[in-house]
Amino acid sequence: xxxxxxxxxxxxxxxxxxxxxxxxxxxxxxxxxxxxxxxxxxxxxxxxxxxxxxxxxxxxxxxxxxxxxxxxxxxxxxxxxxxxxxxxxxxxxxxxxxxxxxxxxxxxxxxxxxxxxxxxxxxxxxxxxxxxxxxxxxxxxxxxxxxxxxxxxxxxxxxxxxxxxxxxxxxxxxxxxxxxxxxxxxxxxxxxxxxxxxxxxxxxxxxxxxxxxxxxxxxxxxxxxxxxxxxxxxxxxxxxxxxxxxxxxxxxxxxxxxxxxxxxxxxxxxxxxxxxxxxxxxxxxxxxxxxxxxxxxxxxxxxxxxxxxxxxxxxxxxxxxxxxxxxxxxxxxxxxxxxxxxxxxxxxxxxxxxxxxxxxxxxxxxxxxxxxx
Length: 373
Prior knowledge:
Blueprint: H1 2-27, H2 34-62, E1 66-72, E2 75-80, E3 83-88, E4 95-100, H3 107-134, H4 139-156, E5 163-164, E6 167-168, H5 170-179, H6 181-190, H7 192-198, H8 208-215, H9 221-233, H10 237-247, H11 257-269, H12 274-283, H13 290-303, H14 307-322, H15 328-346, H16 356-361
Antiparallel strand pairs: 1-2, 1-4, 2-3, 5-6
């Protein structure tokens, strides 16, 4: 499907450029310089992202979900304890709107509205820009609005089901929601982490009817990671690690940094394997809350026996949490930091569950429990 999407995009760009060139000739407008066209394309790309993601935002508010983050390129508008704040997220040319369902009642309908609103906003934007280009009185405004209309249609093309890992198109999720059944439940599970970031619900309290199919052996890689988070917060770290290992069996470039950071945390705290924990820490990406990385760094320091450094890192993580929006995920993080401090205060060696070896045996053959090479 990704190859088909690339073919469709190439065909659309070729066709739309031809249409705009013919229209400019009929209306008597000269072509802009290459530099002007490049500036118009850059501006249009930003406008496309704003229109598309604001469509998702308006729909998220309309269905009663809680706003968490809006990202346009590398900049993000993030909800924190003191309100909304603009932050540098990462260098990226895409966009995204993150919302948290406040409950799972009526989820399917709400998610359909939320997901479809982005492509719908792009379609409306395209029609508006086409009309503005049609009534333009100068060559510059004609080419500017024509370029915006071309880019806005790319947002409409997100209705095509495509993507990999967690980077899936709106069309992919719409198709999954319309299929319903297990696919609908899968989408709900994918939203559980958002719920923990936007409400008081902690991971240990996630609905049993959603978690039981995964804990019974079903699900995909991200659902296995969700099972790890759920069990860790429920006080079952060694059972949780088996699910994290399954999630790490076939890593992908689109994996969230939390996958590797949690491996570093577990290996540092529960196995005291400083070398392998450090490898996982070094392999993690950057787009993650600071306190998650600081907790993983503290776990590695604990494994190396660097108690003072581990305490400092825990303190840094606690200060970062103080600025975060109060939610179930933050309470879960505070509990894990307290556990780290208790271990530092006790000065204990690695705490091994009597079931730790059995947990590792349930992992499929070929899984590297040590970390990336």
